[in-house]
């Protein structure tokens, strides 16, 4: 199929949930680069929405996947799975979690977290089922995660929603305090709200939430689907906050493109699941957990976390220079590691986003006025320069 065939067939055969996509289809990738069918080279500063942390076609990653493909892909959870066990161990050793359960996506990991929190109180014979989440959050597209997601546009077509989810304003401790009832089972937040435009929560706010949850016997859940796996400079973003959750969820970069998600929990809550309470066909099969294991290995070998800290500081510095050079055009820069949001004047955001794309630089527009940069975590300062120099040229013209 040439590009027009792909486009037309997509319109005819694929459900129209993505509408008119950006006019590109990629055939090959290498590091930060993506190659379209006609050979056009793009620079991927979005990494498949914070997924391809190792960039494209990372040799050691590909070799680990091929190696696993030659052995076995799937066996079912009826049997012990060495890679699954090993990956769970890796996550536990690197985090505050004592136990892990694997799913296939972020939404599914979050569903697992809701079930676990509810089961914890069910076991205790307590009638606690309400889950407090935040406005402008994003937790996934399944029915329960849509109910958890504080964005009207995602909820509207699906009313009545799964009951028990309550949204309050982000970064507002009193709002949570006021929403807590004797039915509150859990509070779930993203430490940095990604989809709504890269909005980090305050350290003090998160610390207060922890204290409130401890006092009221409420499960604190961090959705680290986007912020986890080194994106924000620590393996898990909560480590930069110095506040531990009871449960956190992972997905996006955990398999660097091979679908795998995880529910990670402390023992007191993890032990609420008994045999039969939860399950999955694909979750953490030998292939996807081999991907996760390879990701952990390569992060260690290549010092990825150090790289994120160093390059993100440089990148944000370069963007800061542009904000000074073009006051009123760039209105804010927010980041946690290599999750960077550049906020533009309302009238300019879309134009800048489109101009970046025309210059073969991939980003995403989120929250209406924010260009989100979530590049592979292997990028170097010179890649940040490429981005900043291109943006400089664009801003000079508009
Ligand atoms: C992407 C994302 C999800 C949903 O993950 P899927 O794999 O698309 O189900 C959930 N939470 C956050 C914070 C995300 O960024």
Keywords, separated by commas or semicolons:
alpha/beta; 398 residues; 18% strand; 7-stranded mixed beta sheet; binds pyridoxal-5'-phosphate; 4-stranded mixed beta sheet
Notes on the structure:
- This protein is of the alpha/beta class and 398 residues long.
- The protein contains 15 helices and 17 strands.
- It has a 7-stranded mixed sheet with strand order 4-12-11-10-7-5-6, with helices on both faces.
- Strand 1 (26-30) and strand 2 form a beta hairpin.
- Helix 4 (82-94) runs parallel beside helix 12.
- It is globular.
- The two termini are 37 Å apart.
- The mean pLDDT is 97.
- The structure holds pyridoxal-5'-phosphate.
Question: Nutshell version of this structure?
Answer:
The chain is α/β, with parallel strands linked by helices. The protein has helices spanning 3-13, 47-50, 59-71, 82-94, 106-123, 143-148, 152-155, 173-179, 203-216, 238-241, 267-270, 286-301, 304-325, 349-358, 381-397; strands at residues 26-30, 33-36, 41-44, 99-103, 130-134, 165-168, 184-189, 192-193, 199-200, 219-223, 247-250, 261-265, 330-336, 339-344, 361-362, 364-366, 370-373. Helix content is 41%, strand content 18%.
Low-confidence stretches: none
% residues in beta strands: 15-25%
State the helicity in percent bands: 40-55%
Q: Quote the average pLDDT.
A: 97
The kinds of small molecule bound in this structure are:
pyridoxal-5'-phosphate
Between the first and last Cα atoms, what is the distance in angstroms?
A: 37 Å
Number of E-type strands: 17
Shape: globular
The number of distinct helices, counting runs of at least 4 residues, comes to: 15
By secondary-structure content and strand pairing, the structural class works out as alpha/beta
Main sheet overview: 7 strands, mixed
Q: Could you give the order of strands across the largest sheet? A: 4-12-11-10-7-5-6
Question: What's the alpha carbon Rg, rounded to whole Å?
Answer: 21 Å
């Amino acid at each position: 199929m040439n590009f027009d065939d792909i486009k037309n067939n997509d319109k005819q055969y694929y459900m129209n949930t993505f509408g008119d996509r950006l006019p590109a289809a990629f055939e090959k990738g290498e590091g930060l680069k993506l190659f379209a069918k006609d050979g056009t080279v793009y620079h991927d500063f979005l990494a498949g929405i914070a997924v391809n942390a190792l960039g494209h076609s990372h040799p050691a990653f590909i070799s680990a996947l091929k190696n696993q493909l030659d052995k076995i892909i799937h066996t079912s959870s009826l049997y012990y799975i060495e890679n699954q066990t090993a990956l769970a161990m890796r996550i536990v050793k690197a985090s505050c979690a004592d136990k892990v359960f694997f799913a296939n996506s972020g939404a599914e990991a979050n569903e697992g977290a809701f079930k676990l929190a509810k089961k914890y109180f069910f076991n205790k014979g307590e009638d606690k089922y309400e889950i407090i989440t935040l406005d402008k959050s994003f937790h996934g597209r399944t029915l329960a995660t849509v109910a958890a997601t504080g964005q009207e546009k995602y909820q509207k077509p699906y009313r009545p929603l799964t009951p028990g989810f309550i949204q309050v304003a982000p970064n507002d401790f009193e709002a949570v305090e006021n929403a807590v009832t004797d039915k509150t089972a859990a509070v779930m937040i993203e430490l940095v709200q990604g989809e709504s435009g890269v909005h980090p929560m305050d350290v003090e706010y998160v610390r207060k939430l922890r204290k409130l949850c401890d006092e009221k016997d409420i499960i604190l859940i961090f959705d680290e689907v986007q912020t986890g796996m080194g994106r924000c400079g620590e393996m898990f973003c909560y480590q930069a906050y110095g506040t531990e959750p009871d449960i956190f969820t992972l997905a996006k970069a955990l398999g660097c493109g091979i679908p795998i998600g995880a529910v990670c929990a402390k023992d007191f809550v993890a032990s609420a699941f008994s045999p039969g309470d939860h399950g999955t066909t694909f979750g953490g099969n030998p292939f996807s957990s081999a991907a996760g294991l390879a990701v952990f290995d390569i992060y260690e070998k290549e010092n990825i976390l150090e790289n994120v800290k160093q390059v993100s500081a440089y990148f944000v510095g370069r963007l800061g220079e542009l904000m000074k050079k073009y006051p009123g055009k760039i209105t804010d820069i927010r980041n946690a590691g290599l999750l960077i949001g550049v906020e533009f004047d309302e009238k300019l955001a879309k134009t800048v986003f489109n101009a970046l794309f025309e210059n073969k630089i991939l980003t995403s527009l989120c929250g209406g006025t924010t260009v989100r940069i979530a590049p592979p975590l292997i990028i170097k300062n010179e890649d940040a320069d490429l981005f900043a120099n291109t943006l400089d040229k664009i801003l000079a013209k508009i």
